[in-house]
Amino acid sequence: MTNPSDLPTTLGALRERGYAVRSVKDEMRENLIGKLQARERLFPGIIGFDETVIPQLVNAVLARHDVLLLGLRGQAKTRIARALVDLLDEYMPIVAGSEINDDPFAPVSRAARERVEELGDLTPIQWVHRSERYGEKLATPDVTIADLIGDIDPIKAANQRLTYAHEGAIHFGLVPRTNRGIFVINEIPDLQPRIQVGLFNIMQEKDIQIRGFNVRMPLDIAIVFTANPEDYTNRGSIITPLKDRIDAQILTHYPRTLEDGMEITRQEAWRNRPLGGRKLLLPEYMEQVVEMIAMQARRSEFVDQQSGVSARMTIATMEAAISNAERRAIVNNEQVVAPRVVDLQQAVSGIVGKVELVFEGEQEGPLKVARALVGKGVRETFSLHFNNPLERTRRGRKGEAAERDPYAEVLGWFGQGNTLDVTDTMPTREFVGELEKVPGLRALAAERLGVDPDDDYAIGTAMEFVLDGLHQHSKIAREEVDAHVSYSDMLGSIFNARMRGGEDEED
Question: pLDDT grade, residue 150 (50/70/90)?
């Protein structure tokens, strides 16, 4: 790491040091090559793109291309763009006080040129950290050319007694102020077409022209755009001449494996929160359930797939489930925060606002769709750890014992007309005590999920997960009213429902 106090402070000292100025894209290219040769991890924190997006991004940097990152919401487009800053030199010299990061050896602004002409080798040098060489703008319909490029500043002209034709009266916009750096425009289709036209020169000729000034300022800048394919039809489009000037278009995507999705949620969700001395117990199968919810949403017929399902949905759902468990631990004065399946039903607030529903989904209702997605997440995760309860157990051949049905004891208890009730506020001891009424449930959960049967917090969540998994495979019935959940025999539940229906008809 460079110590700024050891760097030259004047143009003469910089010249004596033999400092060589490189263009931004050459700088990024050479630093990337160094990282590749050293086998450093590129873009830490970007998960699931190692074989897809990152190789294309590396190719674009090596080719010195401007880039368009195209993908649905929540696919880390902005994070990727910001990570490109790590490819810049740690510090870069500019003429001290320059508004547009003027190169000391070739200043382009009038103020910097005059200062270098006046002071020569005594011109003071300022060192800019790479984090300050990044500019970003969210494209909105109200963005103007003045915002991006610049305009005449009448107050500046009046204070310095300059005419509007004087170059010193210019107020530079965001793009020139990021000169010799990386500039990102997010959601580029939202930018008005006439404003997109103003980017032509920056993309191709690498200069800007402000108002009627008969002077063009060359810029050294790497530009990155981000866009959502949905924007092309719903809000706007990238005009063809601008798209033609963007060298590389890279498609992003959602996590393609369960493990990648879980790693993203672990990285982004607020799990390491202050719990007042309490311990968070979050088993892997519960993490899998949360990620499965998103995977099911991304293929659900009720969810608008063109809009996408952001990774922010799993993050919000995980945080809400932990918060519900934390609330329970605080109220019951328990020292372990252990999320349960019933907590996921209380965490649907993280799902409802994160998915766009099609007409059929709107007819069902967002809350009903969200709860159905939670159920499908439980079902798919259950299948990772347990045999399919819907498949018949294998009969033994002659002389062999028949394969034992692992669920027979649990289902038999419900078949006797027993019911089981749990709530999201139950203290752990009461919660486990209620679940232990079901014979064989503790042993089944401990064996298949690798849970310590003597740890009430762990075994309680595991036993509830088994029951809910059996319900999602239509082996037992489940009724829910707010945060109160009741499990019972499936056939008895159907019979009772029909009896109630018949009584209603008679009434």
Answer: confident
User: Where residue 405 falls among pLDDT bands split at 50, 70, 90?
Assistant: confident
For residue 225, report the phi and psi dihedrals to the nearest 5 degrees: -115, 150
CATH tag, 258-385? 1.10.8.80
Mean predicted confidence (pLDDT) in 449-475: 95
Model confidence pLDDT, tens digit, residues 101-146: 999 999 988 889 999 999 999 999 999 999 999 999 999 888 988 8
Residue count of the chain: 507
pTM of the model: 0.86
Give the closest residue to 175 by CA, choosing from 143, 211, 219, 140: 219
Sign of CA dihedral 298, 299, 301, 307: positive
Residue 414: HSE in the Cβ half-sphere, 13 Å Cα cutoff: 26
CA separation for the pair 104, 111 (Å, rounded): 12
Query: Residue holding tokens 């580029």?
Result: 188
pLDDT of residue 235: 59
Burial class (CB within 10 angstroms; exposed 0-12, middle 13-18, buried 19+) of 267: exposed
Cα–Cα distance, 308 to 301 (Å, whole number): 12
Q: Rounded to an integer, what distance in angstroms lies between the CA atom of residue 88 and that of residue 180? A: 10
CA nearest to 203, candidates 189, 227, 224, 186? 224
Distance CA 261, CA 248 (A): 26
d(CA 424, CA 409): 26
For residue 499, pLDDT over 60 is answered with no
C-beta of residue 395 within 8 angstroms of C-beta of residue 479: no
What Cα–Cα distance (Å) separates residue 233 from each residue in 40, 237, 331, 359? 40, 7, 50, 18
Rg (CA), the chain: 31
Please report, for the chain, the start and end positions of each structural domain, with discontinuous segments joined by +.
4-251, 258-385, 408-506
With vertex at residue 30, the alpha carbon angle to CA 220 and CA 246, rounded to the nearest 5 degrees, is 45
Q: What is the mean pLDDT of the chain?
A: 89
CA atoms within 13 A on the CB side of 296: 20
pLDDT for 385-395, tens place per residue?
999 888 865 55
* Other beta carbons within 10 Å of 370: 27
- Range 324-346 average pLDDT: 94
Residues 198, 186: Cα–Cα separation, whole Å: 16
Architecture of domain 4-251: 3-Layer(aba) Sandwich (3.40)
